[in-house]
Amino acid sequence: MKNLSFIRKVLLAPVLFALIATFSIAQTPHSDKEVKEDIQRHRAMATAHEAAAKCLESGKKDEVCQKELQAACKGLAIGKYCGMRHVH
After folding, report:
1. Which of 9, 22, 68, 71 is most buried per CB count within 10 Å?
2. What does pTM read for this prediction?
């Protein structure tokens, strides 16, 4: 039983260290350049979403507008919803 307790402690230490490191990195402030790049990405995503709204208003099918949105957002956001997902 002593060995099992020791093994747990040895295995737990790196896990705790990794968690602490993750939270430390996550709270690193962004540089001015990174903030400006984020602003540009948000504006590009907003433009793509506005185009998607106009596409839907024009009477095109949702699938067509979704493909156009995905093409416009390629490289801007994570996932196929261009950084946003809402209820349908």
Report:
1. 68
2. 0.61
